[in-house]
Design a protein that fits this description.
Radius of gyration: 35 Å
Largest sheet: none
Number of helices: 4
Number of strands: 0
Distance between the termini: 109 Å
Shape: elongated
Helix content: 55-70%
């Protein structure tokens, strides 16, 4: 037969792991208690009491099942993320190997690549500029304020 203390202790470790994982994401332990409690259908104070081994709290069968279900979902999400990361690393490795075989690949960002673009505006030299005119003088509308 399982005692209440034993049931609480068995539930404590996965619950603590859920809280610490959520704390890493939110940066706040109190926000982690809120999030985990909300997902389990319990209050943040219940989560804190279970983790803190309070004598006045019990972990029921439905709580244990909810904790296990949430842990299983997080484990599945971690495995999917790990598989996607591995696939991306393998794709990058394949691209690097192909580039090593065929030579450097121009990314389009390098201005000195194999196909340098012609400038859109020709460089201006002093002889190509229109002659400056000193005959035009701009007089302000209220020239009375500016004598002389």
């Amino acid at each position: 037969m399982v005692t209440v203390e034993q049931a609480n202790e068995v539930a404590r470790d996965p619950l603590l792991r859920l809280v610490l994982d959520r704390k890493d994401l939110t940066g706040s332990l109190m926000a982690a208690y809120d999030d985990v409690g909300e997902r389990l259908g319990r209050s943040p104070s219940w989560v804190r009491k279970v983790i803190g081994r309070a004598a006045d709290v019990t972990v029921g069968l439905h709580d244990w099942l909810n904790i296990n279900t949430l842990c299983a979902r997080l484990d599945a999400a971690s495995e999917r993320l790990e598989a996607a990361t591995t696939a991306r690393e393998e794709a990058r490795r394949a691209v690097r190997e192909a580039a090593a075989i065929s030579g450097p690949v121009w990314s389009g960002r390098d201005p000195g690549g194999p196909f340098a673009l012609a400038p859109l505006i020709p460089k201006l030299s002093p002889s190509s500029l229109p002659p400056a005119s000193i005959d035009t003088v701009v007089v302000p509308a209220d020239s009375a304020r500016f004598p002389g």
